Amino acid sequence: MNDLSKISGLTRAAGISALHEGYMPGFGNDFETEALPGALPDGMNSPQRCAYGLYGEQLSGTAFTAPSHQNERTWCYRIRPAVKHVGRFSKIDLPYWQSAPNVDPDVISLGQYRWDPVPHAQESLTWLTGMRTMTTAGDVYTQVGMASHIYLVTASMQDEYFYSADSELLVVPQEGRLRFCTELGVIDLEPKEIAILPRGLVYRVELIDGPARGFVCENYGQKFDLPGRGPIGANCMANRRDFKTPVAAFEERETRSRVVIKWQGQFHETWIGHSPLDVVAWHGNYAPVKYDLRTYCPVGAVLFDHPDPSIFTVLTAPSGVEGTANIDFVLFRERWMVAENTFRPPWYHKNVMSELMGNIYGEYDAKPQGFVPGGMSLHNMMLPHGPDNEAFEKASFGELKPGKLDNTMSFMFETRFPQHLTRFAAQEAPLQDDYIDCWDSLKKRFDGTPEGNWD
Ligand SMILES: [Fe+2]
């Protein structure tokens, strides 16, 4: 599985051995991978002495007693146990990375909002200093809800590592490539792909080339899973084989290093004398994963009407209330529109869930203008929304022949919790003050006749 001819540049730069590039296919599989032969124990987890003098350690992603079909844990065989990767903690301030509850009395979250892309700053920003929280929802203390962020990264983390005890992170790049060097392997990520970084996983983020910008959904609640397909059956939407988990890779780097931990909405630093990315081999089902959105197989209307957008769900994180997600990650990508006698764009809508959208590239069918790549919009709980006048007229008067929606990829983080704007989102980010004007020119077409006034 490991291609030994492909020792990564990261390995050579670190002057160490056995960082292998490569991925294993599947979602939630029980994987096993080793960067050195024989590093994994055979048929057991805790031998009296591990091979290579490694320490055995379990990373528990669910409670020990979680039902077996949800139980997730990974056994790591590492140079030092993780307790050697932390010391005493000091609190640090990352003022732009906010957690719920975050209700600013000077900010009005009730409204339909849209933003232009947040531009890169002049200063050098890493994954940690470049995270800009846009909205928060729920409560990080009780592990429900989420936050949405924009990341603006212009610098790699140097001898610096991070993990979030609060959340798993769903990363949606929009511009530029990133390398996530994690305890369990290396993920290279580019636009049109997504990655999930599990709660508690230590990693460092490097720039591969130019500046990087994208979106993050920070999930405080239960992990993302694939949605049930119901009558759709065993195929289509996101298929398990298209998810990729990295093979084992480790660093043996004895340099002074900073570890930053997000815990209960607060940030802490601790200093150690080595890299914590020292897992030589691991087995289990709690691991980072990436997915190419171009492999998402959309299913939709083939005769009439427009299904609910849940038909485009890629991942869902449950809330404990059946069918009511803590977060759904929904993808609007290229597809054919064929419905007869049908208003084809998303219909007008008022929703108990709150909907945060981002544009990865191209043009979104309900908003041909203004919702641009890198931009975001928020249609909060019970706030009506729908196509703007241009989209309405085009859809109402257009010839209903089969048509391809091309060059389009947008997504939605949809949550059962109302989303609160941060002060950054309300006052510093490029908010479009005129967004709600997009519905101004919708006409009254009711004139008392069954035909209506379509002039
Ligand atoms: Fe909606």
Structure description:
With 455 residues, the chain is mainly beta. The protein has a domain at 296-431: Sandwich (Jelly Rolls). The chain contains 3 helices and 26 strands. The strands form 5 sheets. Strands 1-16-20-13-10-15-8-7-26 form a 9-stranded antiparallel beta sheet. Strands 6-24-23-25-22-21 form a 6-stranded antiparallel beta sheet, with no helix packed on it. The radius of gyration is 23 Å and the shape is globular. The N and C termini lie far apart (65 Å). Mean pLDDT is 94; it is low at 1-20. The structure holds fe (ii) ion. Residues 349, 351, 355, 379, 385 line the site of fe (ii) ion. InterPro entries: HgmA_C, HgmA_N, Homogentis_dOase, RmlC-like_jellyroll, RmlC_Cupin_sf. Its cofactor is Fe cation. One of its GO terms (biological process) is L-tyrosine catabolic process. Keywords: Dioxygenase, Iron, Metal-binding, Oxidoreductase, Phenylalanine catabolism, Tyrosine catabolism.
Keywords:
455 residues, mainly beta, Jelly Rolls, 9-stranded antiparallel β-sheet, 6-stranded antiparallel β-sheet, 3 helices, 26 strands, 36% strand, disordered N terminus, binds fe (ii) ion
- How would you name the CATH homologous superfamily of the domain at 296-431? Jelly Rolls
Sheet with most strands: 9 strands, antiparallel
Following the backbone from N to C, one meets helices and strands in this order, namely HEEEEEEEEEEEEEEEEEEEEEEEEHEEH
Mean pLDDT: 94
The CATH architecture designation of the domain at 296-431 is Sandwich
Domain Homogentisate 1,2-dioxygenase N-terminal: 23-293
Active site: 306
Cofactor: Fe cation
Protein name: Homogentisate 1,2-dioxygenase
